[in-house]
# Entry
Amino acid sequence: MKKIGVIGAGSWGTALAITLSNKGHQVVIWDLDQKHLAALTNDRENKRYLPGVGFGENLNTVPTVEEALKDADVALFSVPAQHFRSAFTGALPYLSDSTLIVNVAKGIEQKSLQRMSEIAFDIKPDAKYVVLSGPSHAEEVCKAMPTTVCVVSRDKKLAEEAQDIFMTERFRVYTGDDIIGTELGGSLKNIIALGAGISDGMGFGDNAKAALMTRGLAEITRLGVALGADPMTFLGLTGVGDLIVTCTSMHSRNRRCGIMIGEGTDPKEATEKVGMVVEGYFTTEAAYGLAQKTGVEMPITEAMYDLINGNIGAREAEEMLMGRDRKHEEDKKFHIQTMGCQMNERDSETLAGMLTGLGYSKTENRQEADVAIINTCSVRDNADKRFFGTLGQLKKIKEQRPDFVVCVCGCMMQQQHIIDRIKAKYPWVDIIFGTHNIHEFPQLLKSVTEEKQKIVDVWDEAGDIIEGMPSKRLYKFKAFVNIMYGCNNFCTYCIVPYTRGRERSRHPEDIMAEVADLVSDGVREITLLGQNVNSYKGMGENGQADFADLIYMLQEVDGLERIRFMTSHPKDLSDKLIQAYRDCSKLCRNIHLPVQSGSDDVLKRMNRHYDRKNIWNLWKNCAEQCRIYRSRRIS
Ligand SMILES: NC(=O)c1ccc[n+]([C@@H]2O[C@H](COP(=O)([O-])OP(=O)(O)OC[C@H]3O[C@@H](n4cnc5c(N)ncnc54)[C@H](O)[C@@H]3O)[C@@H](O)[C@H]2O)c1
# Structure
């Protein structure tokens, strides 16, 4: 049996403390509200939230957080989501490295738009973190009524450990590994429950509620998938299971709050009247922020946001939702074919993120796609033959389905003669856009689908770097991270400076924030991308950082295990970067130096800015500093 410290003695913390102590664990419970805590100590019952259910001998209150967590095997956090950061920070000094951390708060932090696990890993990167979620009302759990939940962790063993600790005959616990989906499912269903309550309060029937729940699940899934969740999670206990219980039960405070709003009470007043935390109220604000950031279409969340902010009334919200454009219920599908390098693969991840946000899902079969994108490359051999061959194949689909949208983008589109050829010979292409205006794609697609016109929108010059674009990453444990764009080298044979523009570096803080997010989602290896990564120069809060500085910063990211980067130009391989190889254990011990030629004359004609002697000196320096004796490839 375990020693368990519960932080937060609201209804859920108390119900779980009762369940765990009745199973035989030694449980202590603490709450920030000292008056409430004194009442619990005195009454040995939570009269405020769960009257009539007494504490057994294994459940006791303690006066401080330190006493709650001293020697605890498990720290169970059950505080409102907006208070999780402060509760976790306050608990940190008393958490040992072996303490299993179980969090049950369901919400997204308003200020940072972070999920609870992101906050926990920010504060304690090595946290043994598990989230417990699912359809579970405290009022039923404390009376040992049959309930099923999921414990979810990126480490299977931790989830199984939690399963053993919590499982009883009447409290059935499943395990899972999709933290993003679980946390989003548990948080976002509260917004829909508010809406379901409003619908009930306005006197609407079961049809309206079923519509809200079903379309609510669709928009929750869209946002979840855009943020990296597994869509199947939303069909399980922590998704649709929790949504059903919250939207239909009188135990749901979100629904109760909604009913009051639907009956005409001011939203703020309604949350105060409920008397307990109405998570949906706060989560609406955060989810709206995430929808804006990712470009995901979330009409119910948007209507709820306007409603609780007093911009519209319940009747207008209903009109807004019912009066939307006609739609096909099933999600539309997209297919992307990527030609070329990792930069193009990364751009395709961004395009996939945008399309997911617009409600499209990915298909590997172009025949069933509603939108097909070919992301082209102008460097690789045979690329244009392959590209025009593929374009030819799309003609047939377009003839059969005139609504099928054909889009072409990438480096080839930065060349006018290619655009002219497409316009003359491939009139079934709907959208041509370039490498500098990917962020405009949702708008371009909207114009084409709504106004049925063809668009050519290719920028000659690169604009500012756009941060925060959505992304649907290709891999779970490794990720591409752009650090810079463009190239200033003008090698005689290379088109890249013309198709990708001049060098622009991202701010180091933006790169570090992206990497921190990736790591908290389970990524362990990153590949830094740029046409010429080692000429990176990013202006940060502490002045300018070069590529080596960036590597040293990334070395410090807890949880990140490997750093790789793309081919680097030999002229930009600085002594400082070679020293970074020596010092930074996470930087993979290989380097690709495209020497290109052994002839000084050829190198000069290639405009490479180095000669044989430079290369040998570089090589000697590498070998001396890092004891690298073998390169993978000298080409
Ligand atoms: N009630 C349920 O049935 C249920 C079920 C599943 C999940 N949840 C989730 O669990 C979380 C807690 O819900 P609840 O129903 O217990 O809320 P509640 O409003 O009943 O109680 C929250 C308690 O947390 C305490 N608290 C606030 N900040 C604190 C801090 N920094 N340190 C310690 N205590 C603090 C408050 O004093 C209060 O007693 C919410 O995110 C909720 O969505 C609730």
In short: The chain is about 45% helix and 15% strand. The first helix runs from residue 11 to 22.
